[in-house]
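[job 4471] stage=fold_predict status=RUNNING
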Amino acid sequence: DFYEVFRGSTLANGEKIVVEQTEWKDLHVQASATGGTVCFLKKSENPWPFSTQRISLGKMVKTILCIDYSTDFYEVFRGSTLANGEKIVVEQTEWKDLHVQASATGGTVCFLKKSENPWPFSTQKEERIVKPDFVLVRNFPKDIHENDFRNMVIGLIYGGLDGVNSPTSILMCMDRPLIYAELLKLSKTPALRSTSLTLIPMNYWPNQPISTSAPTALDPSHATTFPLVCKVSSTHAGFGKMRASNEADLKDLRCILALHKDYFTTEPIIDFDYEFRIQKIGDHYRAFKRGSDTSWKGNWGNLRYEDMEFHPDYKIWADECSKMFGGLEILALDVLHTTDGHNIVIELNDTAFGLMWEHSDEDNKYIRDVAIDKMNRIFAEPNQ
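[job 4471] inference complete, writing structure tokens
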């Protein structure tokens, strides 16, 4: 088993060694003066464990860079190939372990640090240099401690990488007010105005030094009324949010915000019966209720989930929002169902949204299929 013998091996320059093992009887070789040697390997009758011998494949492979710390995408993609037979090789890392370089002629090259908690039977036990063909991003490229990996996203864009979702859309979705601006445009279109869902009103504040002395320029009729929710920067998972019941509360909060330069937004507090999420992964849709027994935030504390019926209006919103920023293959909308029976959209989450734990295995397979489908359109269709 030379898969095992060479596992984790690299060249002196850091390039990873990928093993393809066969027997003479399962090998077909073709060669040309300009194209070199290409091999077709038949599926083995007795494949080695954790090997590629369970499938027939050519010599060529495509590498997908998966950026995620919570799901083992080595396992999710195990044995996957493109429609033309090319094997899909997974390299997985986290934003904090990723360094991206790119050139106009050489594309994107990534240095991946050794993982502190490597997945079993993976390449994460070693540092490696990878030239990815495609990227799957399932972690938000910014954390609550101001670690911002925007420059890594830009490197992926610069090298011309496509992905799920596209690196360009991920860059745009790093700033929550930009997402809201696109939602606001869409909410005014006939397609969404005809549905039972509406968009929450929101105000934006830049939080620059002049903000402490500048008068409120907004017409009072457009101001957020109390009580309100203040959301700072583009944090997620319930962080960076605080309630203000009156002007005094908001002034106290501004005193804290003045210590930093994060922009913030305000929106009214809505009396709601429950919060729910509309989830779209390619052509698969799901809706589920989400709530907390310990917090006014629906995504904080002791959470509970419950599947719910998927209304046709939910699909309209998900499909229209999937057109944002050149296309979002996967997305989730967070919605409040109010005490008077209305549905108010409060947020769109792009590529890094969390899955309902009861369906996570199934949904990760849908994500895999969406990635493979897009890779097939790029690499495996005729004339590509």
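[job 4471] summary: The radius of gyration is 24 Å.
[job 4471] exit 0
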